[in-house]
Design brief:
Order of helices and strands of chain B: EEHEHEEEEEHEHEEHHEHHEHHHEEE
Helix content of chain A: 40-55%
Distance between the termini of chain B: 26 Å
Strand content of chain B: 15-25%
Low-confidence stretches of chain B: none
Strand order of the largest sheet of chain B: 4-3-2-6-7-1-5
Largest interface: A-B, 32 and 28 residues
Helix content of chain B: 10-25%
Number of domains of chain A: 1
CATH architecture of the largest domain in chain B: Alpha-Beta Barrel
Oligomer: heterodimer
Radius of gyration of chain B: 23 Å
Radius of gyration of chain A: 20 Å
Number of strands of chain A: 0
């Protein structure tokens, strides 16, 4: 799934980007040749970790980005202009389940057990080892209930947002300009990513591919 | 000298009081949860820090000077010298007293895990006078702190008080160090007194790079027990030293050069050679003029200039025994040039200063200088700039 996303992401980007490297320019060819001689850690930072975010390219595709912690939807607002939310809007109490095409990720359907039938508490959908070690938890996580979905979706969205912020912070501290550190993969951030990838001889995608995260020092 | 704590604006909080200070770079590479971090934005321009960033569930935020944020943001502002903390440090927030203390300073040579205020000795020159308080809570705090220390930290000391009074708590602390900081050398400063015969054995193979610094103040029980103001201490310390050796621990002997000890330093060196040949290092240390030492200046002060022959003899004996020996807290101008090779820059940066006389000295860079609380009564008459080195 992530592979498909990445390809779509890369092609769309090529079309939409503000300053795309048009074809393999001399510079990127050079960078590609150079990369063979670059220092490589014996084990890369994110070796063996699954990068679900590699294909993520913009905020517009995810409704979940309006997470409960970001009451300001606009990007780029700075702390000078910080204003506390006048009224706090709690997360919606009634949740509309995601579109009927929702399919649970493959890793969760693997064991195929049925729901234990116990009252479903807010249970993480993430198949972390600790959660799946317990039989009952396993059964619960298998059944994406209407209650569990928004929580986990929000958690995933927060995770993604945090990862983008860390990537933006890394770009910023390495002298690139990703714009405001706001957790949104804005055109400016994508542009900074491409500049970074070009310099480091990484495949230029404008997205958070694993080699890019490794080079930035960002752990998944 | 950079102080270790300061007055500050500290919000009331229910989170952990220990926080890792991170700038944007360290934030991007850290795998700690943001609730254990204090984001340092003091050097970050306005445009970069979006509301979304500030809204993460930070342990704390350090705003640029003069900025004030709403009470919903857990911001901390430090009074005084802004260099008191920087990215990589670990700070402790004290909302009751409105203070911030630095518990770990990245790049400092003297980071200490403070184990306890209690001690079973009562040394005449104690720089950290003990208090008889129940502070077993420190164990849990140290376990927290260890997780926030840089994994590439070269060296940490565990000190107090007497760390072995934590009993198994000390074993837990060292174990956590070996799990989280396997590359960090850990040095336990202990009086070595054996109380629980089983404790020292628990350190066998517990940590890949652990050593002990144990003080010995005389070649005779009367002298040692007098200096530590505790009857039976000499015998207990020797038993402890042999227990450490039995547990395959690396041991350093530390000798503070108080006058009665200085007078018998050559005999002490010979005692170590004959009875403790397994020690890997001997440190001969100038007095730190603080704590109890100030009350006993007359009894304790020994100008190294008056004891240069004894000092050279002691160093020679240990050299002959093949035991490495270092001189701590002794300015180069107060000792013979033949001993300069043994002198170390030993004073932690937060309490290290130089005297006005040092400004023209040609070996100032090599010299350890003085404790910040030096007074004329504790200054060797030999102190003078060295111009011809």
């Amino acid at each position: 799934m992530s592979n498909a996303l990445m390809i779509v992401g890369a092609t769309t980007l090529g079309a939409l980007a503000t300053e795309p490297p048009k074809g393999p320019s001399d510079l990127s060819t050079l960078a590609h040749i150079d990369s063979k001689y670059a220092t490589v850690l014996s084990t890369s930072l994110n070796a063996g970790r699954q990068n679900l975010y590699a294909g993520h390219r913009s905020h517009s595709s995810h409704r979940s980005h309006s997470s409960h912690r970001s009451h300001s939807s606009g990007s780029g607002s700075s702390y000078r202009s910080y204003t506390p939310p006048a009224t706090y809007t709690p997360p919606p109490s009634t949740y509309t389940p995601p579109p009927s095409t929702y399919t649970a990720p493959a890793s969760r359907t693997r064991s195929g057990a049925s729901s234990s039938g116990s009252p479903v508490k807010h249970q993480s959908l993430e198949s972390t080892p600790s959660a799946t070690s317990d039989g009952m938890h396993k059964a619960q996580t298998l059944q994406p209930s209407t209650l569990a979905a928004p929580d986990s979706e929000r958690r995933d969205a927060d995770q993604l947002k945090l990862l983008i912020m860390r990537v933006q912070a890394a770009l910023y501290s390495k002298g690139y300009d990703p714009g405001a550190i706001d957790g949104i993969l804005s055109p400016q951030t994508q542009s900074a990513l491409r500049m970074f990838q070009l310099t480091y001889g990484i495949k230029v995608t404008g997205t958070m591919t694993t080699p890019t995260l490794d080079a930035l020092g960002v752990r998944l | 000298m950079l102080p270790l704590d300061t007055k500050a604006r500290v919000p009331m909080s229910t989170g952990s009081p220990l926080l890792k200070v991170v700038d944007l770079r360290d934030f991007s590479t850290s795998s700690l949860p943001v609730s254990r971090m204090a984001l340092d934005l003091r050097a970050t321009p306005d445009f970069a820090a979006a509301t979304e960033l500030l809204d993460l569930p930070w342990g704390a935020l350090l705003p640029p000077d003069g900025h004030k944020w709403p009470a919903t943001v857990p911001w901390v502002s430090l009074e005084g010298d802004s260099r008191i903390t920087k990215s990589g440090d670990v700070i402790e927030l004290d909302p009751i007293r409105q203070r911030v203390a630095v518990r770990y300073r990245r790049g400092d040579n003297g980071n200490v895990l403070f184990a306890t205020e209690r001690c079973n000795s009562y040394c005449l020159m104690c720089s950290q006078p003990p208090r008889d308080v129940e502070d077993g809570w420190r164990v849990r705090q140290l376990l927290d702190l260890i997780e926030l220390v840089d994994p590439d930290e070269p060296s940490l000391a565990i000190s107090g008080g007497e760390p072995t009074l934590l009993g198994d708590g000390l074993v837990d602390v060292v174990k956590r160090c070996s799990e989280t900081l396997p590359d960090t050398h850990v040095h336990i400063l202990s009086n070595g007194r054996l109380r629980d015969p089983l404790l020292h054995a628990k350190f066998d193979r517990l940590h890949p790079n652990l050593s002990w610094g144990v003080p010995l103040y005389g070649d005779h029980y009367g002298l040692h027990d007098y200096v530590v103001q505790s009857e039976g201490a000499f015998a207990e310390t020797l038993r402890g030293l042999y227990a450490l050796q039995a547990a395959r621990q690396r041991v350093e002997i530390r000798v503070v050069l108080v006058r009665p000890t200085f007078e018998r330093l050559a005999q002490l060196a010979r005692f170590i050679w004959r009875n403790l040949p397994f020690v890997e290092h001997v440190a001969l240390m100038g007095i730190e003029p603080v704590g109890f030492a100030k009350a006993h200046q007359r009894e304790l002060w020994a100008d190294p200039a008056d004891y240069s022959e004894i000092l050279r003899d002691a160093v020679d004996i240990l050299d002959m025994a093949g035991i490495p020996v270092s001189l701590y807290n002794l300015p180069l101008c107060s000792i013979e040039r033949s001993l300069w090779g043994h002198a170390a820059k030993s004073i932690s940066t937060w309490k290290n200063d130089y005297l006005p006389a040092c400004s023209t000295c040609s070996v100032k860079e090599r010299c350890g200088g003085f404790f910040s609380w030096i007074t004329p009564a504790w200054t060797s008459r030999a102190v003078a700039p060295i111009l011809d080195a």
